[in-house]
Amino acid sequence: MERRTIGAGALAVGAVGLGCMPMSWAYTTSRQRGDESVRCVHRALDLGSGLLDTADMYGPFTNELLLGRVLKERRADAFVSTKVGLLVGEQHIVANGRPGYVKRACDASLRRLQTDVIDLYQLHRPDPEVPIEETWGAMAELVRAGKVRSLGLCALGARGGRRSGTGLHDGTLRLLQRAQQVFPVAAVEAELSVWSPEALRTLLPWCEARGVGFLAAMPLGNGFLTGTLTPGEGFEPDDIRARHPRFTAEMMAANQPIVAGLRRVARRHGPEVTPAQVALAWVLSRGRHVIALPGTKRERWAAENAAAAGLRLSAADLAEIGRLPGARGSWD
After folding, report:
1. Secondary structure class of 27 (helix, strand, coil)
2. What number of helices (H) and strands (E) belong to the chain?
3. Nearest-5° Cα angle at 285, 280 to 289
4. Which of 55, 74, 285, 299 could cross-link to 83 by cystine, CB 3.0-4.6 Å?
């Protein structure tokens, strides 16, 4: 697989990574199978999708434990990215950016992942009661201690203010500028897909200008851009899409022209090419500093996603995708 670099440290990873959240968190709990997920991770690593993206809150904790089963055998094949800063309660999630907590959380993640170093340690969300300089400083100490190789930040505001699409990442940019004064930011993770292109306006250019890697989360639009979801089919109550304004039956039907456009482009590249692969190729075409992180828990989809790294879209393809209608949600 094509390799791309993250940050000034030139940490090389495959262009398509593996988002591990669906294996333990947020999607169709009844279909989560540990052994199946372990096979999926092995398959992804075999195909060069070495960046494994997880977080201590996924589960919570069970996602890191699952990856630890694989990393115990194949640490050299993987680039491990995990996150800190969010605590999961019974019915709520709260931020904790206190330096002491960050250091304890890192040690706990290392134990669960069965590794002695984390390649990319990301701040999941800043704590509004703790200056980011203090949190980031504690994370920088982990780098100096040899427990972490590089630091990243997850973007804020990815789901707010979609009507205008302006200023979505202003808060993230301010945090990044403050963090950079303490210790270099190696990567930023944010939502980016054909139906959620907001990061293209300011966040992607900021990263490119500074040699910061961009990890494209949800590049398949929470599964919608695969073309495998049926409007009105419904979701389990604990599935995040059950409450997502673009996943009502009405809005899924209204957004079908986006999938139809991806299918048209896919057909031009051969009968085996899928809309999902076109969607991932579009994300990768946004810049050499972009790594796509599609999430899955099945070997089949991991293999399909990895193959998208070899798909090259033409100027005509990109122009056609650029003309697709914007995504609609239940607020419209």
Report:
1. coil
2. 11, 12
3. 100
4. 55
- For residue 195, report the phi and psi dihedrals to the nearest 5 degrees: -100, 0
Both tokens of 269, joined, read 């590249």
Closest CA to 214 of 65, 6, 26: 6
**How long a stretch of residues is the chain?**
332
Residue 58 a catalytic site member? yes
CA pair distance 125, 263, nearest whole angstrom: 36
Task: Outline where the chain has alpha helix (H).
Answer: 34-46, 62-74, 99-113, 132-144, 170-180, 203-209, 249-254, 256-268, 275-284, 299-307, 315-322
Low-confidence ranges of the chain (pLDDT < 50): 158-165
| Residues contacting 85, CB < 8 A, separation 6+ | 95, 96, 97, 102, 123, 124, 125, 126, 127, 135
Does the N-terminal peptide bond of residue 60 adopt cis geometry, omega within 30 degrees of 0?
A: yes
pLDDT in tens, 35-51: 999 999 999 999 999 99
CA distances from 119 to 90, 134, 149, 324, 329 (A): 30, 21, 5, 37, 36
Among 27, 58, 101, 121, the active-site one is: 58
Residue 323 token pair? 């003309």
pLDDT in tens, 3-62: 998 887 668 899 999 999 999 876 777 667 789 999 999 999 999 999 999 999 999 999
